[in-house]
Amino acid sequence: MNKPNAKFFINLFFGMFFVLFLVIAGRLIFISATGEVQGVNLEDWANKQRTTETSLPAQRGYIYDRNGMTLAQDLTTYGLYAVIDESYSPNPERRLNHVDDVDRTAEGLADVLDADASEIQDRLESGKENGQFQVEFGRAGHQLTREQYLAIEELELPGIYFHEGSDRYYPNGLFASQVIGLAQANDGGQVTGLTGIEAQLEDVLRGEDGSLKFERDNYHSRLLDANEVIEEEQDGHNVTLTIDQKIQTVLEDAMTQVDAQYEPERITATVMDPKTGEVLAMSNRPSYNPNQLENVTNWYNDVVSTPIEPGSTMKAFTIAAAIEEGVYDPDETYESGSYSIDQIDRPITDYRRHWGEITFEEGFQRSSNVAMSKLVWEKLGTETFHDYLEAFHFDRPTGIDLPREEAGTILYRYPIEQLTTSYGQGTTVTPIQMLKAATAIANDGKMVQPYVIQDIVNPDTQETIQSNEPEVVDQPISKETADEVLKAMESVVSSDVGTARNIYDLESYTVAGKTGTAQISSSEGGYLEGHENYIFSFLGMAPADDPELLMYVTVQQPKIAEDEAGSAPVSFIFNHVMENALHYMNIKPDKESEETVGQIHFPDWHDQSVDTVVDRLNEANIDPVVIGEGDTIVNSNMDADELILSTDKVMLVTDEPTMPDLSGWSLRSVTEFAHLLDLDIEMIGSGYLIEQSIEEGASIENSPYLLTEFLSYEQLQEQLKAETEEESDEVEEEDQELD
User: Which pTM value belongs to this model?
Assistant: First the structure.
């Protein structure tokens, strides 16, 4: 190459280099001036790279009963993760911050998590091979209990860390579960309401998560000047229900007994204040324990979601309409047994009986279908009766503040349907519709709105966000008519020919009520046949002259003997709950015998001697649990002068508290005990206690954490059976050895 050409290429090279230099320099100057690359702000990008953001989870609102008893609360759980990046241990000789020994880590975690060590080992090794900074362990590492958390901490495994989460916990288990509902944590740890009040008030209960942002170095250590930014979390609002824990407990116990003894297909029972519409107790069977979701067969709250044919309980509203219209003469007679009109193919008949010529009053007491049919067809008129069905709101949902409410259907197109509706067949209603309508009878003709949410409160400011008050929504009948219907319903219980005679008879209070025996539709058409194939029910209120409580119970297809009445399981629930609830509410008995059954005003225990308080309780046949060896009472789960029932578990805390033996205690009682002693409690299982971490007689003051384990009644029975069989085998072996 000659010199001119060489010089040309050298100049070209330097020229291109100079242009490139100018481009790069210009770009650097531009970046320096604007701080952006391709629209990305470098300072923001750098801050983002070295900034860690941690979520500050909001606490889900608590749900309480009307007296402040906790029904649903958050429970702290732990999520497990492992850091496997060696860069997280800048000084490995001094301290290991990552998982170094995979085998030891896998074996240690497997024992606590009840998992396969090889699977944990595979996760750790796979993460290392793929250059991951950390790994998690799926469901096995989520929602760990405090016991598991402490057990893993004791292993002191390098590189193993936790993040706190929450799960929903229901201290009373089965208690009103289809009212309270269910909330569960999803895979992301967010607790969400799925059923009941938990779903109905999801937006109110959930709250809003906050966040914590700060800057860190390459080793994920917090910088001294971390530019911390905190956005405070907003905890969910607390909800108080109208449910009364004591009345609900009595109801649940009665339902459980009937369920075990009679094995019915369905049970519903609701207790309401007829003057306010407040639901004091509501329960169903089948139900479920939200802490232990196994073999759930019924998620629905049948009281509000499942319409049924009500049977003869509807007759109370038929005579209410006739009385209001002035066409009901209780002394007028008619021929019972059978009633036929030209517009129907088959006659209306009374249930298996013919009583001859009787009065309409006796017809109501005997629950005569013929009497009701004649009232509607000959006296009221079908159109007028239909107007009253609408006036009692049987044509619409009640609007109760519970999810998934379904209304029944007034079946009223043809003459036969118009007649059968008068005695509760064909037409369907839900139990809550029946209760709402019945408030008009119990409350001087004024029908009130049923509700279960008492108020919603901001836990930080204690500001009441929402408060429900009693509301009269209609007046289908007058006070005079309501009084007459009450007298007629009382005669169903007190009359010698009444269908409730000697069945729904409280010891201390008069009862006004109406029995029901409804046929059940068959999937193949018509109705089921057989002694058990009915929905047996009772609509009752007490005291009869001025009802303070209203209750509706239905039991579907109980297993009863041929000579046993279907009212047996229904009356057990009604009598047991109504008697105890009225005493608990301190309603004065209106019968001649005014004995208070198993009842006492709790004595003032403040600074009283143990012997004094125990003696007073023993006089009332109440055997309290004395906690500790001290001489003076310093606390109790009962307030002074509180009216308590014989079924209540009374706890007295002395000035030297020690741990009692809780074996056999229900989950509800153990929870109450823990709250009373301010213990941090963790529960495994549900039902009745079999294990406790604090030994009997140990000091409680220095033991704030209590781990408990429970078994259901069925599990206890199986365990007892297994132990008995094992003892029998041992005895048999000993006998063989002796032989």
Answer: 0.75
